[in-house]
Amino acid sequence: MELQLDRLTRKFGPKIAVDRVSAALSAGVYGLLGANGAGKTTLMRMICGVLRPTGGEVSYDGVPISHLGDAYRSLLGYLPQDFGYYPEFTALDFMEYMAALKGIGRHDARARSLRLLDQVGLAGEERRRIRTFSGGMRQRLGIAQAVLNDPEVLVLDEPTAGLDPKERVRFRNLIASLAQDKIVLLSTHIVSDVEYIADRILVMRGGAIVLSGSPAHLVSEAEGKVWEATLPAREAERLEGRLTASNIHYLDGGAACVRYVADAPELAGSVSVAPTLEDLYLYVFREPGPALAAGVHFKEDRHG
Amino acid sequence: MASLVVFELKKMLTRRVAAAVNLGVLVFMAAIMTLNVVQTQTTDAQGNILPGPDAIAQVKENDDAHAGTLDPGRVASDIASYQERLFERIDREAVGGMTGAAVYDLMFEAFDTEEVYELYNSYWSTLLAPWRIAGEEPAQTAARVTPEMAADWYGAVAQMTESNLDDGQGGTWAYSDAERSYWTDMQASVERPLSYGYVGGWSNIISCVAFLVFAILSICVTVAPVFSFEYQSGADAVVLSTRYGRSKLVAAKVVAALLYATAYFAMAAAIVVGFSLVFFGPDGFWLSIQNISLSCPYALSAGQAALISVGLMYLACMGFTCLTLALSSRTRSTLSVFVADVVLAFLTGMVPSAGIGALAHVLALFPLGFTNFDALFSAMNSYPVGPVVVDLVGMVVAAYIVLSVAMAPLAAASFRRHQVL
């Protein structure tokens, strides 16, 4: 089971949304991190075959997905960002409709739909119309439909959007339980969504994957680039705009502890601290210029 | 596949706008047909105005009184007796120089009311139709008819076709030799002698079939979101990534739309046909279409003509459904799809042809263009296609079959190739 992305490119007019992305994904959970507009959604749409690349191709076990057609789509589960629903359908209608589209027999469809609705916490809501659902409930329904066919490739685009913190934790556990023996690609711009469940993280910027690796490995990339300094609170507020601060913690006595990312300490008394994935994310996506340079550097390091 | 069709039907029909429009149009059509019955009026033998079912019964009674085969002998004899009754009391020579209104007044002076209404029975109008000049009173026409002319009544009927061909639709259309021969041959094929009788129910269906355009628009409202709502709501990404998203789903959408359109059209047509046959009666299915208009060159019965009218409207319905699907598959805006339908189905019926024959022939292909008796069966609208002549009925059939056959695959192909941007 391997999904190969070979110089996958998508242009919209003069704008390059995805720029020659190459990767090989085997079973495991992949977290796709990137700011809004980084190209995550476009990349996922191409992987799911709903958007034709302008260059390169996606292959599954060596066969281009454009040749596999229905056979590839039968292995696929996809939760798009802002997924559309049919307002007058009940949750069960929607699940059974998706089951029919996925080629699941009517009897199986009912049983699987009820089981999955239960699994995503929608038991007892099967007969409610989707238009009466909260954003979180709709998102859970979206996740349930995505795994209805027990897909080998599960693509989830911003699946935690609209979920409250409790639901996010529940969602992470759900993904972890569903991810066995699957290629799960999960996009988000919220680092904590993938920090604990991703086996590998891909960081996108400007349409390209600029970093990839296990969370621990990526975190190590930020070693020596995360700093903490204690300074007067007023001074911390003044510097907030200039620094790439990941946290400002106000202390008693008018002081503040500032945690920031930079290639070298920028405040007097700064001490190097252990980085987290979030620090790395901030480092890659810091504005202006230097971050991009860093991105290119990482890209060149990792993708030649 | 069957379950996908059911889900697609459910998607279409549970939308609130669609449900409201579908129900509203059926109620509206029932109301129109009720008014059609209630507002029917005629006068009885005493000159009293009869409304609704009483009027229908009176018309039927009048027609039944003269029902029978119009063999040449009977026609000549009936015309002669009509002339005798008329010109016993009014001056045959004088009426020719009078205005229609003056002759009408003269009739009431010379005859009892009961007699006048009998002399104005549509049977006499039918017999005198071959010689009638527009605006003329029956007495004026009768004054010009000689026994020799009456004896050749069927020749005069055939001459009506020739005169209409010479007239060229008021000078707007020059019939080619092939067209002239097409219509002349068709007129010659009408079985003789004709049978006279009551065909009110079938005639009313032809008169009211245009109301089915409301059903077509209701269908367009329901079908317009079939593809465009997927794009608009973002559901396209979900469904197109599924196993059957680009194959069976497309077929299911088209099949569901056509099934729904057929079922809904059948309900609407049942209202038009049902009201007509229940209130006006099913009598005269096999009586010739010339009972509705003597100049009609078609060898059809009134019932067949009514069924053809409804059938053509069904084909138009299928054509519009497929066109709507094709438009829906190309745009996110349901409203723009519907506006296009309204323009084609409704506004084409309001565009004047400005005396341009070619434009009139094009406009006649749209639902409001062909859904009247005159355009479809009497006006001799023909389309020369090389050496072949196709009449309006054939052209409407061809146009909507081509539209359906072209648009349904276009809709399917557009959705299959759709890219989620």
Could you please describe the fold and organization of this structure?
The complex is a heterodimer of chains A (304) and B (421). Chain A is 36% helix and 29% strand. In chain A, the strands form three sheets. Chain A has a six-stranded mixed sheet with strand order 6-7-8-3-9-10, with helices on both faces. Chain A has 304 residues and is of the alpha/beta class. Chain A contains twelve helices and 14 strands. The two termini of chain A are 25 Å apart. With 421 residues, chain B is mainly alpha-helical. Chain B has helices spanning 2-13, 16-38, 52-65, 72-89, 92-95, 100-110, 113-119, 122-128, 138-144, 147-151, 153-171, 177-188, 200-208, 212-223, 225-233, 235-240, 248-280, 302-328, 334-345, 357-363, 367-370, 373-378, 392-416, and strands at residues 41-43, 49-51, 68-70, 194-196, 382-385, 388-391. In chain B, strand 1 (41-43) and strand 2 form a beta hairpin. The model of chain B has no long low-confidence stretch (mean pLDDT 91). The chains are: A alpha/beta (304), B mainly alpha (421). Chains A and B meet through strand 6 and helix 4 of A and helix 1, helix 15 and helix 16 of B.
Keyword list:
heterodimer; A: 304 residues; alpha/beta; six-stranded mixed sheet; four-stranded antiparallel sheet; 12 helices; 14 strands; 29% strand; disordered C terminus; B: 421 residues; mainly alpha; 23 helices; 6 strands
Order of helices and strands of chain A: EEEHEEHHEHHHEHEHEEHEHEEEHH
Count of helical regions of chain A: 12
Instruction: Report the order of strands and helices of chain B.
Output: HHEEHEHHHHHHHHHEHHHHHHHHHHEEH
| Percent in helix of chain B | 55-70%
Question: How would you name the oligomeric state of the polypeptide chains in this document?
Answer: heterodimer
Total number of strands of chain A: 14
Major beta sheet, strand line-up of chain B: 1-2
What can be said about the biggest beta sheet of chain A? Answer: 6 strands, mixed
- In terms of DSSP E residues, the strand content of chain A is 25-35%
Rounded Rg of chain B: 26 Å
Report the largest inter-chain contact. Answer: A-B, 34 and 30 residues
Number of strands of chain B: 6
- Structural category of chain B is mainly alpha
